[in-house]
């Protein structure tokens, strides 16, 4: 018999759902099932559930035709569950590795109706805050079970569905269901505790409760927070119907605590709604106050309770504002004490920087130029990637837009003829950054850049992510040395649009860069050239590189390792050429991070050509017959051409542990895989580079990651961003 049925709710959680499902399915316990309920989610959550169901028979997806809300959706999952116990897990949370055997042992040993497990709040900055478990139970209850009347302090644990595992037959016998509306956990969790004959507590952290930066109900303002009152009314209705005695004072105290929590959160109740919310609190206080009274908290919390009891909104509001003003003053004083008066550096460079900063701030007060678009790529390394493709499409489709590129002084000579530019760091550079209507970049602009009303920031990115990025790097500190994640989020908050090439990228960026931008999942503009390339285009590129039509060209393009500066994968060009044969040609390209380290190997006559300094990597893709790479996003671009790809990953185990990856390249490769250099040579010797297995892998890879790269991605971006057209 299935021990635990996990009911996983999925609504707008595509960036987190994979982590949630993996955290359950990778546990060392097999007798489970996962019922994934897609509550008519407008993103790809439903597709992710279907994908996992194809891979693991324990996953049973349910797709709802219309959105019904969290409570009814959980009921639908409950109705399909067959496990002895049910665990409701939200799709943006995840289990702690290895926790499930401990849960299973406790369930089998004690047979509780409800087993409460511990959790941590997992914040965006990788800080975890503990639950109230230690405060409620200074001495852990151990394996003993109890009824709520014996341990009423249990009510002070967080009243959610996901921190408890509930016996399914118990729910059926008591007719316990989730009610519609927000705060649906209230009218489920408290009645379940009151009805349970056997409650257990597992003093072990089993779940990470994600504190989302955006998109969470707890950070959404509106009048739907008034629905909390109806949920608490149901709790007291069930108490009366079941004739529960002795618990009313403790439940009442929890109700007032919860109301005060909701009201005190400025992200939930708008200022104009606070007075009517308080009025309803007072009405419920009068209505449900136990005849025998209840334990009023001490100190300032008790004062709040007394003001609610008296209905004194003006006093309550005034004290709240005074408290907030005091907190602001204290924070300001602390910052002032920490601030060290800057010493004026009497250098020409410092004076120049100060003057340019003042100039930039002055330009911010001038009107936004409605025709100006500023483009940049790879920290001003030149004209390339998605911004270049969008620039070219905008010149054709929106000629009224004036495009200006930002480049480093040493890269000016690489610009195509006729491209208007400014040099980074100059007065003109600061002017266009301050005045531009559109700012397009495949990385972030510097921190000093301000998001002006009326300006549009377009983040194009520069690859489909294999390695973890953004906030996810906090879990892999070896590869994130020196990163300022708070500063990163301030930069991300400037984005209006995020360009992605596939659903997978959309999901990962949503998790790595949580903010209120609009995703344009349209394909990668830089790949338009690859999708539309002809045999003539390929021939011209090869001729320009000095490559004969009948030569067999291998492009080797490894990525860099942030955690291992200067390290290079073991690769012997001469041995590779021996295997390729007399018509073999090897193109070698270092990562752009190493552009200061590029040293040409020498004449191309020896069969090896260093193409690290070649500006347009798309040309190299067109010229190559095979791509050899490791964890670079180059594989996703090259796959558009439907040519062989070899993953050469000699440090795979170390890389995935130290740097972290989103994609298991060994399980889902775009072609043949080699884990050491002799194995790479064997791939070419044996013909595995392009055999039937490699072709099947490439077809599946292209279907998943390249379906949108049809040659018109840049046009779709321009029509949406510059022309305001909607699909």
TrEMBL record:
Localization of this protein: Cell membrane
Domain Glycosyltransferase 2-like stretches: 5-170
Superkingdom assignment: Bacteria
Gene3D superfamilies: 3.40.50.11820, 3.40.50.12580, Spore Coat Polysaccharide Biosynthesis Protein SpsA, Chain A
Topological type in the membrane: Peripheral membrane protein
Record key words, sorted: Cell membrane, Membrane, Teichoic acid biosynthesis, Transferase
Family: Belongs to the CDP-glycerol glycerophosphotransferase family.
Official protein name in the record: CDP-glycerol:poly(Glycerophosphate) glycerophosphotransferase
């Amino acid at each position: 018999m299935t021990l635990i049925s996990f009911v996983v709710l999925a609504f707008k959680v595509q960036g987190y759902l994979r982590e949630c499902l993996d955290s359950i399915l990778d546990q060392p316990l097999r007798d489970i099932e996962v019922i994934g309920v897609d509550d008519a989610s407008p993103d790809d959550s439903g597709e992710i559930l279907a994908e996992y169901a194809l891979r693991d028979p324990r996953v049973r997806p349910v797709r709802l035709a219309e959105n019904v809300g969290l409570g009814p959706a959980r009921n639908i999952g409950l109705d399909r569950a067959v496990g002895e116990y049910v665990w409701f897990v939200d799709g943006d949370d995840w289990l702690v590795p290895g926790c499930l055997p401990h849960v299973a042992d406790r369930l089998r040993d004690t047979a509780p109706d409800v087993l409460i497990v511990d959790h941590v709040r997992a914040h965006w900055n990788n800080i975890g805050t503990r639950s109230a478990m230690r405060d409620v139970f200074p001495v852990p209850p151990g394996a003993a079970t109890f009824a709520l009347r014996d341990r009423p302090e249990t009510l002070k644990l967080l009243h959610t569905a996901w921190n408890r595992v509930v016996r399914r037959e118990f729910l059926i016998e008591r007719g316990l269901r989730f009610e519609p509306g927000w705060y649906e956990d209230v009218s489920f969790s408290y009645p379940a505790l009151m009805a349970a004959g056997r409650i257990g507590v597992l003093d072990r952290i089993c779940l990470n409760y994600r504190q989302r930066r955006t998109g969470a109900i707890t950070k959404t303002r509106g009048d739907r927070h008034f629905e909390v009152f109806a949920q608490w009314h149901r709790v007291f209705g069930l108490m009366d119907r079941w004739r529960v005695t002795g618990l009313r004072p403790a439940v009442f105290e929890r109700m007032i605590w919860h109301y005060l929590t909701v009201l005190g959160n400025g992200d939930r109740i708008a200022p104009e709604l606070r007075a009517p919310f308080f009025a309803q609190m007072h009405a419920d206080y009068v209505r449900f106050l136990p005849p025998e009274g209840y334990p009023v908290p001490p100190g300032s919390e008790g004062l709040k309770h007394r003001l609610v009891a008296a209905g004194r909104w003006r006093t309550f509001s005034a004290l709240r504002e005074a408290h907030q003003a005091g907190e602001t003053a204290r924070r300001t004083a602390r910052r002032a004490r920490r601030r060290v008066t800057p010493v004026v550096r009497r250098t020409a460079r410092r004076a120049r920087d100060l003057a340019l900063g003042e100039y930039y701030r002055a330009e911010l007060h001038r009107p936004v130029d409605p025709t100006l678009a500023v483009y940049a790529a790879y920290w001003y390394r030149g004209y390339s990637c998605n911004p270049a493709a969008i620039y070219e499409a905008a010149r054709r489709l929106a000629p009224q837009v004036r495009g200006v590129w930002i480049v480093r002084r040493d890269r000016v000579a690489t610009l195509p003829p006729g491209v208007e530019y400014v040099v980074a760091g100059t007065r003109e550079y600061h002017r266009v950054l301050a005045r531009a209507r559109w700012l397009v970049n495949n990385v972030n602009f510097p921190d000093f850049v301000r998001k002006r009303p009326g300006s549009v920031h377009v983040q194009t990115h520069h690859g489909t992510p294999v390695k973890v990025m953004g906030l996810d790097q906090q879990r892999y500190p070896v590869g994130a040395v020196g990163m300022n994640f708070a500063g990163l989020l301030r930069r991300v908050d400037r984005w209006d649009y995020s360009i992605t090439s596939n659903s997978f990228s959309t999901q990962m960026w949503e998790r790595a860069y949580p903010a209120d931008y609009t995703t344009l999942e349209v394909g990668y503009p830089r790949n338009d050239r690859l999708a539309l390339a002809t045999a003539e285009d390929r021939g011209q590129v090869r001729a320009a590189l000095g490559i004969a039509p009948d030569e067999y060209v291998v492009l080797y393009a490894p990525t860099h390792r942030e955690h291992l500066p200067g390290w290079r994968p073991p690769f012997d060009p001469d041995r590779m050429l021996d295997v390729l044969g007399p018509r073999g040609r090897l193109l070698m390209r270092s990562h752009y991070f190493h552009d200061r380290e590029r040293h040409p190997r020498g004449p191309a006559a020896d069969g090896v050509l260093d193409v690290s300094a070649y500006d347009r990597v798309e040309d190299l893709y067109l010229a190559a017959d095979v791509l050899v790479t490791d964890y670079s996003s180059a594989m996703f671009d090259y796959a558009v051409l439907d040519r062989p790809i070899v993953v050469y990953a000699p440090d795979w185990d170390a890389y995935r542990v130290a740097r972290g990856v989103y994609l298991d390249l060994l399980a889902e490769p775009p072609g043949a895989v080699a884990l050491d250099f002799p194995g790479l040579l064997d791939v070419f010797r044996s013909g595995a580079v392009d055999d039937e297995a490699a072709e099947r892998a490439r077809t599946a890879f292209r279907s998943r990651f390249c379906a949108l790269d049809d040659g018109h991605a840049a046009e779709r971006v321009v029509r949406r961003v510059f022309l305001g057209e909607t699909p």
